[in-house]
Amino acid sequence: MNEASVTRPATAGPAASYPRDMAVTGAILGVAGMAWFGWGQAAVPASGLIPLRIGSVACLLVAIGSVVTVRRARSAASAMHDPVVRRHYRTVVGIEVALIVAGAAVLGPSGHPAYLAPWVLFVVGAHFIPLARVFADSGLITPGVLLMLIAAAAAITGAATTVAPSTVAGAGGGLVCGTRALMCLIAARSQTAALAGDPLASDRLA
After folding, report:
1. Are 136 and 8 in contact (CB under 8 A)?
2. Hey, is 172 helix, strand or coil?
3. Which sign, positive or negative, has the C-alpha torsion 142, 163, 152, 89?
4. Contacts of 113 (CB under 8 A, 6+ apart)
5. Are residues 56 and 174 in contact, defined by beta-carbon separation less than 8 angstroms?
6. Which residues, in sequence order, are CB contacts of 109 under 8 Å at separation 6+?
7. Cα distance between residue 114 and residue 61, in whole Å
C-alpha cells in the first residue's frame, strides 16, 4: 500500500478525519487531560484542588466515552492503516519523547525540576503541529499553539511569583486537552451516526 492508496479527506478540521481516528484522539487527549489536571494538583493550595479534581474526572469520562466509540467503530477505516502515516506518526512521537527525556535530564540535575511540567507541555503542544499535517487535521494546530503559550506562561509565572509552574501548566494543559478531547468525541459520534446511513461512505466504516 502506498501513500496514495489511502483516501483521506481534503478538507481540514474535525469533520475531515475518520470517525474512528477522532474517537482514538479523544481517548488519548482525555487521558492526557486527566494526567495534566493531576499534575496540576502537585503544588496547588488545598482551595484549588476541587476544580482540578473535577477536571480530572471530566476528562476521564470523556476518555471512557471515546473508548466506547472506538469499540463501536473498531472495524472502521483509519488513516493509521497507511504505512506512510504510521511511519510519520512514530517519527513525530519518537522526537517528542526524546525531547521530553532530554529536558528532564537537563532540568533535574541543574536544580530546576519545577520547570519540567512547562517543558513537557511545550513539547506536547509542539508535536501537535506536525501531527496536524500527518493526519490532515488542522484542528490539532490550535490546541498545539495554546499548549505552547500556556507552557511559556507557566514558566514565566513560576519565575516571577510563588505559584508553581506545574499548577499553571497542569490546569491549562488539562483544560485544553480535555476540551479538544470532548470535541473529538462529539465529532466522532456524529460522523459515525451520519456515515452509518450513507451507502457512499461504506469504505470509511468497513
Report:
1. yes
2. helix
3. negative
4. 107
5. yes
6. none
7. 29
**CA–CA separation, 92 and 80 (whole Å):** 14
d(C-alpha 174, C-alpha 51), whole Å: 11
User: Quick one: pLDDT at residue 76?
Assistant: 80
Average pLDDT (163-187) is 97
Mean predicted confidence (pLDDT) in 102-123? 96
Which has the closest alpha carbon to 130: 91, 184, 80? 91
- Which single residue is written with the C-alpha cell 484549588? 48
The answer for residues whose C-beta is within 8 angstroms of residue 40's C-beta and 6 or more apart is 52, 166, 167, 168, 169, 170, 171, 173, 174
| The three grid cell numbers given for residue 149, joined into one nine-digit string | 503559550
- Cell of residue 1, nine digits: 500500500
With a cut of 80, say whether residue 197 has pLDDT above it. no
Question: CA 77 to CA 88: how far, in whole Å?
Answer: 18
The amino acid at residue 65 is G
Mention every residue, 6+ apart, whose C-beta is less than 8 A from residue 183. Answer: 14, 26, 139
C-alpha–C-alpha distance, residues 178 and 56, integer Å: 9
